[in-house]
Structures are given as C-alpha cells and as structure tokens.
C-alpha cells in the first residue's frame, strides 16, 4: 500500500503527462505481478461497488476522532471530499503496515462484502490505525468507491509499454475487453510477442473530439468524410473461429442481448471485426433510445419485445478483415471494404453501413447538420479520409459536431444526497415545469454545477426544506435552472407524459423568477418538433 500511495501522490502532484508516465512505469517495474495487476485495474478506472454505506463510515470516523456530527459536517463542507475529511480528522496512526497493495484490496476491501456491520467496523478501524497520511486517504477512496486519479487510458498504455518493453498497440489491444486484475492476467499483458490474448478481445475504441473552430479550418471538404452521429450503444461486432461477440464501448460483453444481430453475423467471413452503433430501428430510421432501454433492462427477451423493438448495428468502420488488423489502413480503404463485405454477406437486414453525407462544399455539411434531428441523429462525425483508426480520444483524425442541446428553464422541487465524495451534500435534483398553478416534475439532473455552487445550493436546501421522504427533501419551489437535454419523447410512465435524454444543468438562473420558468406546453412543443 505504501508504494501505491506514493504513486498516487506522484500522479496527483503534477499535470505533466511525461512525469505521470514515468511514475506509473517506475511503480510497475518494481511491483509484484499481483500488485501491478490491481494498480492497472484502478488506474484504468476500475471501481468495485461500494461495500459500506458512506454514512456508516462517517459515523465510525466521528466516534474514532471524538468529533461531533455538526463539526464533522462543517469540516466536510470546507474540505469538499469525504475520504480526505476522514483522513484529516482521525488521530495519527499508531502502527505502520508493510502489507502489499493486493493484500489490502483482496483481504481487506473485498472482505467487507461478507461481514456484518460490526465486522466491517473492525476492518475500517484497523485500517485507519495501521495506515497514515496518503495511505489512509487512498484506502478511504477505495472503501468509498470514489477512487479516481488523473490517468487516461492512453497514458496508462504508454506506462505499461515502457515498463515491459511491449509495443503500445499490443498493450492497448490486450487491455480491451474483460481484463481481470490478477497476477496471471498481468503476466500475459506484459508478455513478449504480439499475439492476441483471447479470441473474443475487441480493439480499443477510437473516439472523436468536439469540433474546434470553423469547418473551413479543417481544409478541403473532399479530404473529409461526414456521417451521422447516432444515439445508441457503440459496439464492436467480432466474428472469429465460428463464434460472435458483441462488446460495448464500456467493455461489457452484450452478445446475448442482441440475438438477431448475432444471427446475421454468421454470414460474415471469419476474422471480421466491425465498429458500429446498436440502434432500435424500424422502416429505415432509428426509434427513440428509450425503446432500446426496454430491451437492455430485460433478462428474458421475448418474441414480443424483439418484434416491438427490432435492433440493427449501423457499421462505421472495419477493424479486422480475414483475421488481419487493418486499423492502420486509410479510412477510405476501410469503408470501401466494409461496404463490399456487408453487401456480399447477405447481412443487410441487421448489419447496415452507416450512410455517408454527400458534400461538395462545407455549406453542404452545415445544411446536413440542420437536418440531423429529422434523421434521428445527434449531429455529425467528421473523419479524415486518410486517417488510421486510432486509440482513445485523439485530436485531428475524427471530430464530432453535435447539435446544441434543447433547453428549458425549470424549477427545482426535490433534492437528495449524492454518492461517494458528495454523499453528505445534496447534489441530485428533481425539476418541474409549470402547468397552470401546479408544478409537474419531468427530469432529474446532478451535473453542471461548480463545487462552490453545489455547496451554496446545499446550504439553501437545508434551510428551505418543507418536507422529508427518507433521504429526499421537498424544497420551496423558488430556484430556477436552465436544463439542457439531447432528446425528448412521450412517456406514459412519467407523470408529465414526457421523458428527456441526458438532462444536465446548464446554469443556475438566479436572475429568473419562478413565474417566468417554462411550462409543460413548452415541452410539448419540443416533442411535436421531433414528431414532425
């Protein structure tokens, strides 16, 4: 734990990418395979579910430190991070543990799952006694499920490559898919050679950056391919050794959820990997994303739900052909082979090529973006015709040009505590629009405010609560916020009759009185625009 805590401190103390790479590489070079495996897991964003309620941890910390709850809350408000607050308020540690990192993860962190409250309390108190400083802070981050560190996947790949001598492309490929944090997996990760570790492994996804500047800054329009940006599940369809695998961008194996796509893939030749978007699809256009959620949320896919929500994969790119990695080939070459492959495989009913937007001048691209919502699209993707298929989010080859979000001014009516470091602050909010003299809730949002605004709003919420329902507070309907969202659709499950997609707070409208907030009619007008 001491070495991993030093690594965390080294990463946290610099914004220089090379210094972070050096720190991670040094750690991996010196660590055991068991410790290195868990380090890679956590640095790549792995987070086991929280096994102890945050309020229980806070209670134990108050008992151990002899601090009253009001002072603990004030300290938390000042610090802004629960793990750090606990680490600072506890007495200095009386012991010093030399136990390795994997011991703390496997024998302490995961041991919490099978224990009653008293058993969990003993582990927490023992850890706080044995760990000090940064070690205690890192432990608190792990136990609260809020461990995050400023390391991108690309940075981690560079560090593992530097520590092992294995090329970055090989490391990146081996890390994709369902990577297990154990010693054997780490040894395979850094083993010499370029062989694929598992037949089911996807490639790392290539992601676009939001468009910066004007279209004309990109150069000649003929150097670029414009295509629709669809709102579904980004996925890779893999056909190898007589089997099919569907991986989501979140590294979830979702093959069983889409049997019709799997059946269509049997027409594809061996050694084929396609990058695309899973979409609910009927009569040549996508259905609302909520329809796809109906399928995702079911354990058993009945014939009825498959008939009501048919699914296709719109293919963007070809990553592997006849078992050969073709990601370094130009995009224009890959798209041509993709069209030929799908056309000859009799798979068009469930595997479609995402259409390219024809454009002779940049104004044609702008005009296409204006039609995006009518197409059921989020906007456009712009990809260089000569670009290779990269790894992660890199500037230059791919740009995404999304539509501006829809927005309404809504009134906050409920609030409840957040999770992790925000567990003692009210950060999850419910918003309503006006319907005559009534207020109709229609959306929940928890992102978009600064830390200072969250603390200010939390204080207001505590002083203006009019009723409590467990952790939820009903508040005076006095605060107006501009909410943005990507999509809107009719929903009989919601009291408002409307559901919005990806709601988030754009700004706190302190300048706007409640009487000027939007009405349910404003939402219905937006809904009509999507149906027209």
Walk me through what this model shows.
The radius of gyration is 26 Å and the shape is globular. The longest helix is centred in the N-terminal third of the chain and has 14 residues, at 17-30. The protein folds into 3 domains: 2-143, DNA ligase, ATP-dependent, N-terminal domain (DNA ligase i, domain 1, Orthogonal Bundle); 206-402, 2-Layer Sandwich (D-amino Acid Aminotransferase, Chain A, domain 1), CATH 3.30.470; 406-531, Beta Barrel (OB fold (Dihydrolipoamide Acetyltransferase, E2P)). Strand 18 (465-469) and strand 19 (472-475) form a beta hairpin. The chain contains 20 helices and 23 strands. The protein has 532 residues and is of the alpha+beta class.
Q: Span from first to last CA?
A: 59 Å
CATH topology of the largest domain: D-amino Acid Aminotransferase, Chain A, domain 1
CATH architecture annotation name of the largest domain: 2-Layer Sandwich
What percent of residues are in strands?
A: 15-25%
Mean pLDDT: 87
Approximate helicity band: 25-40%
Low-pLDDT residue spans: none
Q: What is the CATH domain class of the largest domain?
A: Alpha Beta
Number of helices: 20
Total number of strands: 23
Largest sheet, if any? 7 strands, mixed
Instruction: Report the principal-axis shape.
Output: globular
Based on secondary structure, the structural category is alpha+beta
